[in-house]
Amino acid sequence: MTKVEKWMTRNPITIEKGSTVIEAIHLMKEKNIRRLPVMDKGRIAGILTEKMVADFKPSKATSLDTWEVHYILSKTPVTEAMNPTPYKVRPDTDLTDAAQLLHNHKLNGVLVVDDNDNLVGILTMTNALEALIAICRNPEVCRQ
User: Which CDD domains match (predicted)?
Assistant: First the structure.
């Protein structure tokens, strides 16, 4: 059975918990990513996703103008919008178990941690689909 380690994104881009929501938005856009592990001095503090940011921002029906919204988000720490208890798996988790976790909880990604809870990667839905495509095209991939 193939393991998460083979398909995960190693060394994911992270953001420190003292950063602001606007910094996270800019980082996600710049790096073309949809989720950011939030770190506190090298330890996982949570996760911030594009959807969490969208849900956190004021609606388009707000009376605030763009600059006021930008100002508010530039003063708001990521800890206000993040999930402080992200789902995690280990590198040696079977890919099928991780995929089941993604499916059951309607997740788009999970953090991959070592035995000391250090972040070593992230397994996204895109990674899982890449694995599915590779396995369907060449079933021998599972035996490697």
Answer: CBS_pair_AcuB_like
Alpha carbon 131 to chain centroid, angstroms: 18
Domains recognised in the chain with CATH numbers = 4-137 (3.10.580.10)
Query: Who's near 33: CB < 8 A, 6+ residues apart?
Result: 12, 13, 27
**Whole-Å CA distances, 136 to 24, 69, 131, 142:** 36, 46, 8, 10
Tell me the residue length of the chain.
144
Contact 97, 10 (CB under 8 A): no
Q: What is the pLDDT of residues 61-85, one digit of tens each?
A: 566 556 676 677 777 899 989 999 9
Q: Beta strands of the chain (E only): which ranges?
A: 9-10, 15-16, 35-40, 43-49, 88-89, 109-113, 119-124
Tokens of 61: 């029906």
Answer for the pair 38, 80: CB distance below 8 angstroms, yes or no. Answer: no
Which contacts qualify for 32-36: CB closer than 8 Å, 24 or more apart?
Answer: 34/108, 34/109, 34/124, 35/108, 35/109, 35/122, 35/124, 36/12, 36/78
